[in-house]
């Protein structure tokens, strides 16, 4: 994570040097300082990208599929500069998306399902231009979402379980428009969430674990209004592997979907929870990982819950937690 003074901190599994602290394969269960001058961070499978305030792009960890975007397939145990001129980043699996200040979208890394969006299924170890007019991006393991400045929502990549939301299960190696009037997007493992400007929450894709927020586990290939959220009022969303988090404008935090690793934070372990449940209050930022969750409260404190076998909660232990736990 990046705190308010631009200091980058990392913790959890350090396989292939994924933490960037120069000590590969040594997991950390408390945050360690990695560098300074950062604006945002995004982590994939055993690698990370960091965006500095000056627009430079940095990468560390594994790079077997060219996910660094620096023209090589060599990894690094510490951050190395791999690009410049970027304003936003999103990492999924073994590939990366980058948004430049002029609104152009770029992609690189593995591309077996067309998840780069360049019209091919060929992996790239250097950025390729996908399109223009974008303002935000979200990368899952095998598919991608892009939100344009005009509010239109675009999707591409793997679509076996309907996660592109275009009404089919056909893979797309170029972006297709699937909706309008959106302000936020979140791509999970096999499902996706979208937030409209009227505060309504929409979901699509696989629903085996209840991650769409429906009363059943029926999946959907089209954008579907999450029924319990007709009251609107949502401000932020985040999609984990098989679960979802949402933050309302009043600071209340809601969670639903798979809970086998306690990642919902509702005080229980296991099972699927099909409808959103309120987890807490006074939250400002949320982030759903593969099987754990992080959230920042309005007072700036960091909280974590869910799976913790590699120390990914950062609380100094390797014990999983079923309720939000403060990270010192």
Provide the descriptors you would attach to this structure in a database record:
328 residues; 4-stranded antiparallel beta sheet; 0% helix; single chain
Structure description:
It is a single chain. This protein has 328 residues and is mostly beta strands. It has a single domain (90-327), classed as Regulator of chromosome condensation 1/beta-lactamase-inhibitor protein II (Methylamine Dehydrogenase, Chain H). Helices cover 0% and strands 50% of the residues. A four-stranded antiparallel sheet has the order 3-4-5-6, with no helix packed on it. β24 and β25 form a beta hairpin. The protein is globular, with a radius of gyration of 18 Å. 55% of the residues are buried.
List the helices and strands and how they pair.
Blueprint: E1 8-12, E2 28-35, E3 38-43, E4 47-52, E5 57-61, E6 76-83, E7 86-92, E8 95-100, E9 105-109, E10 124-131, E11 134-139, E12 143-148, E13 153-157, E14 172-179, E15 182-187, E16 191-196, E17 201-205, E18 220-225, E19 234-239, E20 243-248, E21 253-258, E22 272-280, E23 283-288, E24 292-297, E25 302-306, E26 321-327
Antiparallel strand pairs: 1-2, 3-4, 4-5, 5-6, 7-8, 8-9, 9-10, 11-12, 12-13, 13-14, 15-16, 16-17, 17-18, 19-20, 20-21, 21-22, 23-24, 24-25, 25-26
